[in-house]
Amino acid sequence: MARPPVETIADHLFFTTVFIEAFTPTARSMGTGFIINYPAQEGHRLVLITNKHVFDGAEQVAFTMPAAENTAEPASRGTRTLVTGFGAQTWVGHPDSGVDIGAMFFADVVKAMENGGAAPFYRGFRPEQLVTRDTANSLDSIEQITMIGYPNGLFDQSSMLPIARRGQTATPIFDDYNNLPAFLIDASVFPGSSGSPVVLYDRGTFTTRDGSTHSGSRMALLGVVAAVHTRQVNGVVQMVSAGIATFDDMIDLGIVFKASAIQETVFALHEANGLPLPLATVAHEELA
């Protein structure tokens, strides 16, 4: 069945993400990344955003994306490339150890997919879509959010598209949760969701903090999912003899690091590689 063209905001959101598999000598983990397309003298620089804990300790990382039928149309198949020799020289983390954001330049991965015979189909966020402090201050304390990713490694095996989920802010975006550049969302966050973009997306109409209703759509990149709050639960284990097991139970409160922290990480990536900052990019102080 032919699908409609990729043209709406919602369509584009499904092609912003990358499925990540990270391999250490003893384990495989999964996560989400997303692309921001920064302007540069040479045209543009693709930056992949995810979490530090997705890349930490990885020696090989596989990236999977929808394949392109052509520049305007995705194919009903995927494209995957494995990066060997992956390590600390490949990516940069946010300078603050308490801020779980990692970033890497992504053009070489895209080129490897193209050279392998299956170019990826993607739509990167633009840096001007990172939510500004002024926009955040115009939002209400509770707003609906959308996140895109691969919870528990799930995605559409036919179209290779990620999963979109909705929730709401659990702390105001304009506040810093626990004195970190972060806020909470009331949404189901599972392993594999780490690194998912969290966006403000309203279609048709939206209401601002002053109660006025506006026609049209709005979309802003609010941050990146990093973790979920848990609570300890005791349960009886029925085996040969009964015992008490303690395990963590997710309570559907996700921790999201803000757009300003994303921008700080991108600037650190450029500095670490001796590159000038992207063109016409706002300072992180101006972002929420």
Summary tags:
globular; 5 helices; mainly beta; 7-stranded antiparallel sheet; 13% helix; 288 residues; Thrombin, subunit H; single chain; 15 strands; 6-stranded antiparallel β-barrel
In a few lines, what is going on in this structure?
By secondary structure, this protein is mostly beta strands.
Task: Give the helices and strands, then pairings.
Elements: H1 9-13, E1 17-23, E2 28-40, E3 43-50, H2 52-55, E4 60-70, E5 73-84, E6 92-93, E7 102-105, H3 107-115, H4 133-137, E8 144-149, E9 163-169, E10 182-186, E11 197-202, E12 205-207, E13 213-215, E14 218-237, E15 243-258, H5 259-272
Antiparallel strand pairs: 1-2, 1-4, 2-3, 3-7, 4-5, 6-7, 8-9, 8-11, 9-10, 10-15, 11-14, 12-13, 14-15
Describe what you observe in this structure.
- This protein has a single domain, classed as Thrombin, subunit H, CATH 2.40.10.120.
- It is built from five helices and 15 strands.
- It has helices at 9-13, 52-55, 107-115, 133-137, 259-272; strands at 17-23, 28-40, 43-50, 60-70, 73-84, 92-93, 102-105, 144-149, 163-169, 182-186, 197-202, 205-207, 213-215, 218-237, 243-258.
- The strands form three sheets. The chain has a seven-stranded antiparallel beta sheet with strand order 5-4-1-2-3-7-6, with helices on both faces. A six-stranded antiparallel barrel has the order 8-9-10-15-14-11.
